[in-house]
Write a structure and sequence with these properties.
The protein is α+β, with helices and mostly antiparallel strands. The protein contains 38 helices and eleven strands. It is about 55% helix and about 5% strand. Belongs to the dispatched family.
Amino acid sequence: MLHCYARVLARYPYLIVGAVLVVTITCLGVSIFKSEGFHFERPRAGFETRGTELSEKLVAYNNLLRISENSLSLTPFPYQHKTKFHHKIRHRNKNRHRKNRRKNRKRKKKKNKRKKQRRLRNTLGVKKVALGSRHGNRLRKTAAENYFCDDLDEKYARVVFKSLDGSSLFTLKNIQAMCRLESKVVRSTSLFTELCIDDSRECRSWSLGNYIGLLSNKTSCTDLEENDIALALQTLSHCGQFYRNYSLGAYCEECVRVPAACKLHNAVYHILHYLTDAHFTTITPQDQPVLAYSVSFLPFVQSSATVNLFEYIEGQDLQEGNVELVAANFGIKDVLFKQYIWLDSKWLLLTAASIFLAIWLYSASFFITLMTFLAIFWSLEIAYFLYVFVMGISFFPYMNMVTVMIMVGIGADDTFIYCKVWNLAKTERSNVTLEKIVAETLKHAATSMLVSSLTTAAAFLANVISDITAIRCFSIYVGTSVLCNFLLMMTWMPAMIVIYEKSCNCLPCCSSDKQGPGSVLCRVPRNIHKSISNCSRIFFEKILPCLVIKFRYFWLVAFGILGLASIAIVFVYPGIKLPTKEKFQYFSSSHLLEVYDLHLWNHFWFEKTEIDQVPLMPITVVWGVLAEDTGDPLNPSDRGTLRFDNSFHMETTKAQAWLMDFCSRFRQQPFYQHVPGYEIANCFLENYRNYMAAPCVDDYQKTQGCCNVSSFPYSPETFTRCLGLYIPDLMNTPYIGSYYSNYQLPGPRFKDGQIRAFLVEFSSAVPFTNAYEKLRSFYSQVNMWIRDQLSQAPEEIRGGWFVSYLQFFDLQNSILHGLPLALGLSVAVAATVIFFTTLNFFLSLYAVVTVAFTILTTVAALLLLGWELNILESVVITVAIGMSIDFTLHYGVAYRLSSDLDTELRVVCSISRMGSAIAMASLTTFFAGALMLPATVLVYRQFGLFLMILITTSWLYATFFFQSLLRVLGPSGTFGQFYWPSWSCCANSTRSKDKGGQSVSESTLSSSTVSNQLRSGFENHELERLTKWSAQVPPYSGHSNHARQPIVPKQSSKKAAYYKEPCSKCASQSHKKSMSTRDNQLKNHFLLVKQESNSIPANNCSSGEESEVWIRRVDT
């Protein structure tokens, strides 16, 4: 099969190229004109779970709340009968409301009288209270409004300052520096004037300096003096206790027992609550803490219109004196992200440009380099076509943009391997036809590329089992791109290289004697390539093999200890940490917006209060709705439709009794928290029962049998009929009615006059938190109890389930439990691919151990850098399997193919043959990651850092640990080796046409191409070592003449003779430049073989002397 395909490539390369172009151009056209393109308006879209038990409940619950406003009703009456029903209700309640209004008026008069007397007693001698305290409030509020353009509110944009030397900001020097810095970076542009809330005058910011100026009657904070600062600090010291005991609040003019100085202009409250950090609020006359951070609220609202102003602020010098602007909150992270995701693409382009240059220098061919990048583009484009139009996935998360970086690295790696093997194949004496060169190249390069592509794609596709939408979409797209890249590397690139070889004589780059401006484009990379090749040849053929073999025990111990230490770091301390912050990070940690959200937001009481006032974790039990997510799990916008449980009937007597008992039993559980007040949201039936037992208020209620009913449960007819009276009464009740009219409230939901859903909600004893362990314990305990209770419920209400604020917990749980599954699947696929590629058990075992240590070391390094196991990090860890196995596999395949040598020579052979290509691939990928570090978008930065660490550890472990392991314990000969059954597709036809018109001549392979790219004598023998020794065909000498006129050895019946060649200790196979021309030509008739006789001296290089390598001359 391989020979058949090689023949097609060698004879009809334009046919292959044309077929690829038809497919790629078609996919490109359809993608451009039919797809919706990329949209990143909602960066958080897809970063949620779908398909889990909890996510299905949450989706169904949210659908219930959403659909309730459209198709479900809070009352049992259809929409068309509401008017008539409410008309009857109004007549029935007319007299009752009249009586209630009289009672309410009397009650309000008494209440106002008591309130007025209490106010007169506690005004601390303020005489104007008798005239009305509201007038005084208005005067004080007007005074503050004249100084500022509006009341201080959290809706306004804000910036945060800190001192450079850690000193307190509450000094005259630092306060004035904050004022100057704000004027310089914020107010110095017309953009500020356009955004200001009042363009008729200059609006002051709500800052520490301006509030001190308000208290000191100064028009500007730049006019402040030392005594103003001291007076303000003294006021805060005396008033801080009233703020801490909640006596002092916003607009506290009527607050009792609070000194007037503490209430003046609300300045003290605003300074302590909004403008200074939480630690400073502990200020007392005896203890005045350091003010570390101070907020300045700017007079424009947070909105997308502030993007240009924020970008202007970012470009300014953010330091003034001893003060620095360190954070900001403009409410524009989502809007800004869409811009940065495209602006940061310049780093992707720079990465691609650097790798383009590296491939050009390595291959010394601009044409091959250009075709390589075209293949990478085709792979991305075909994968997008398959992703959108074949798989039907409409959601394209921004994480998919990272695929460009991954594919550039993989494409460069495959090109290095293919070019290396192609150049070696051209120097083989047996490859006298272009077809054989193509076949020999595919034989060796295809194996490495196939294994590398399969393991990398498997590592990505293993994440398809994840419950998180963004991870699944990312893994599908990247895995598809890797497989498309492999197909193009097996079709597009071989065909292009054949075309290049056939047309080489017509191109300026193929001849070194061409002159002209165009030849510079060829000579410069060729000369650089020649210089680098000479240096790399010495390193990879002599120095590196010597370092590996001579210090093999040191490498094994050192990297073994490093791997064991990594195990301790990953699983013991500090261990893998789950995210504890629900805030989503878009940009790098040093970005102004992220500094505020990640580090500084909880330093101020106005932000902390919002979190501290979050209620307890609710426990909501739902009946009548199936806990199913019928939407597309790969589309976060598709939530599906609500499906009702047709077996649900709560109006039966058994259901009523069980639900009432359920509420009673629930209140006895340790996770229940009683909340004082009228608990309308708790158990609907309890209030309904009280309503039915109440005395009748009119004849209509009495005739309906909905009052003075003490027996419970009720008949289904009575239960349903009286709900039609109870719910409207409840909705018309003062204070309660508006609350119950909210569709978020638990209770029954009606459709077509029937109860289709029912919700009960209780408060738990667990405060709201994002801590995984607390939430896990809470969910497990409550879910187990409710399941046990529902299992004993009547059949008609047995399908209930409970939900709470567990979205973030479900995300944490999916990451924690999905990662081991993805890792296990990736390792299993990688081990399987390795074994079926090498067919050697021990080689596969050593490769898996090496990859495991590589991954553990990479993860340990990331943990030491402070990474948490979030969505991106979990993807990165899984991807590490596929990307860390490449180098080990390349070495392992080379070791496997050189099976006729002993372990030491096989190690030397694998390093010498694949070392330069692997090193080049690792170097380009490392720099690709390094060039992404300046990016603003977090995903680019983190993936760049991950690539740098992974590639470094992967190369070190593959080169030093894996090769040392093979040298010490590696299989030799056929030990532990399995074999595939052999068959031949086109063997006879191939042999019969070896002498045909496809012979290597000036028309197919130019002499300059061979002579310029392949000058290493060692490389001339590499592929010969990787083939069966039964061929016994001498290799090329590497000279250009041998490309034109192959030297065929004469037939002889002489026995084998032996020839001695000097060698170094670890690179004994290298040619010596000092050899004479005669010796060089003579050497072409010898092959390095294993020592077969005791009469042959041992091939050992002792220190201090040059050893000898015995080479047998083969007479054919």
